[in-house]
Structure formats: structure tokens, C-alpha cells
Amino acid sequence: MTRYYYRPWKDESLVSGLHFLRCRLIREGLPGVEHADALLRGLGVDPETLPTPQKVPKSYKRGELQRAILEALRNGPLTGLEITKRVSGDLPYKAAYKRTYIALNRMKKAGTVKHEGRLWLAP
């Protein structure tokens, strides 16, 4: 016979889950924010002090960013900033810069691109 034991939730886990739920409710304009706020207050957390970051829209599907980077590098070596400007699309600069560098480093690890000094090259 298998016995299941009750494991109590930690307060930080509850707060984290409620914070995620509250952000989603606010971003999507769904009802129930006041309930999440009441539960957070019950745990001793002021919901107004929690940040509600804006969700950054996805502008690339799987593999599209890597293809766009390789297309940009086809004409010659570029700096990371130049690549970001060419492939950013409608993303805010900071998000585009971060995503571009994550993709570049992943591609470098796979051997798809090379990094020499400040320049990125397609082999």
C-alpha cells in the first residue's frame, strides 16, 4: 500500500505563484485580480509593491532568428550591434539585443558562427 504524505506549501512558493497569476490577470485583462491581491495580503505581502513586467511579444518563431542572423552575416562580418539592428524587427531594442546575443552565443557554441574581436563571421 502506498502512503501519500501531505507536504505543506512554503510561503515563498505561494507568493511566487500568486504573483505570476496576478501578472497574468493584469496583462490579459481577466477578472480576479482582487482575489489574488486578497490572498497576497493574507500572506503579509502588499500586492502593489510587486512589479508587473510587460510581456515582450515574440517576433520570431523557432529557428527564424538564427536564419535572420545568418542572412545578415552572408554579406560579411558584422558587430553585434549591427546584427541587432538588422534583425530586430518590431521588438524594443533591449529585448532584441538580448535575444540576438543569446542566439549568437548558441550559434557560436554549435560552430555556426565565429567571433573574432568585435566581429561575428559566418564560416
From TrEMBL:
Superkingdom field: Bacteria
SUPFAM superfamilies xrefs: Winged helix' DNA-binding domain (SSF46785)
Protein name, as recorded: Uncharacterized protein
Organism field: Rhodovulum adriaticum
